[in-house]
Amino acid sequence: MEYSPPPLFKQGPSALARLLFFVVLALALLISDARFQTLEIVRGVLGAGLYPLQRAALVPRDIFMGAADLAVTSATLRSENDKLRTKDLQLSQQANTAGELAAENAHLRSLLQLSQRATTQSLPAEIQYDTRDPFTQKVVIGRGAQQGIQNGSPVVNEDGVIGQVTRVFPLQAEVTLLTDKDQAVPVQIVRTGLRSVIYGTPKGDTLDLRFVPISADVQTGDELVTSGLDGVYPPGLPVAKVMRVDKQADTAFARVVCVPVAPVRGARQLLVLHYVNDVPARPPEEPDAATTAKEAKKKGGKPADGKGPADKSAARPGEKATGDKTAAEKPAAKPADKAPAKPAAAEKKSAAEKKPAADKNAKPQAAPGAKP
Length: 372
What we know:
Keywords: Cell shape. The chain is built from 5 helices and 12 strands. It is an alpha+beta fold. It has a 6-stranded antiparallel β-barrel with strand order 1-2-5-4-3-12. The relative contact order is 0.07.
C-alpha cells in the first residue's frame, strides 16, 4: 500500500533547496549592487521610510542625554561664572593698583628728570602652518610687511613669550619659536634680579639658562622674565620657570634647565609686538694709545700724540721700546766687520803732508802787543 502524507501537512520544497535558492539570490544581489549599484534606489526608499521609526526609537535616548547635558552644562556654567567673577575682581584690583603705580612712576620720573619708558604696540596674528624643516622650531603667521610686521619683533600670547620674527614676507612672516636651538633671550630672575641669557635646546622641549655662576642664588620654581637690556624684548614679559639646577664642582657655571611658561607649540593666536626703545645708541669705542701707535707705524707716519722716534727710544729700564731700536740697543760690530788698521808710519806721513796745506791756507796771526 503506497504511503502519502495527508493534504493538511503537505510540505513545499525541501529545506536544502530553499537554502540554496536564498544563497544564490543573496550572492546575485551582492554582486549586482557592488558592480552596477542596482539597489541604490531601493536602499534610499527603505531609508526614507524607516527614518521616522528610527527617530521614534531614539526619542528616549535623546531625552536622557539632553537632561544629562543640561545638568552638566548648568553646573559647568555656574562654576565658570564664579571663577570669572573672582578673576574679574582680582583684575579690577590689579588695574587699580597698576593705575596708582603708573601715576607714581610718572611723578617720580618727572621728579628725577628721567626719560619715560618705551611704548609697545601690538598686532594680532594667527599661525598658518609649520615650516618644512623638521630640525628647526619655526612657524609661519598670516601677517607680513604690508600689515606692519617688522623683522626682529617679539611674538607673545596671553601667557608669555612665544618667539621672535626672523623673516618677513609681503603677506606672511616667519617666527622662530622660543625653544629653537639658535634662539636666545636676555632674562632675569624675578626673585633675585640675576640677569643671564636663556637659549633653546636641540630637542625643543626645554630651555637652557647659561652663564650662571655656581654661587648664584637660583632655586627650582624661580620665574624668569625678559630683562629688556637688549632693546628687542620689552621688560617684564614672562619667559620660563626653573625646573632643575645642577651644580658641579669641576665647572664654573651651573646647569639650569627651564621650561617655557607659554605653550609654545600649542599656541594658535599670537600678538606681534612693535617695541620702540627710546634709549640712545651706544657711542663708538675709542681706540687705545697702543693700537694707534701700531697703526701709525704700519702706515709709516708719526703717531697721533706727535712724538717722534726719539721719544720712543727713551724707554725706561727693563721695558722694550715700541719704535725702532736706538744705537745703544744695537749690538756692537764684530771685530771681523772692522776695516784693517793702517801702520803707524803711514799715519805719521799723512799727518805731516796735511799740516803744510793747513798752514798755507791759514792767515798769520799777530803777536799780542805788536803793531801791524
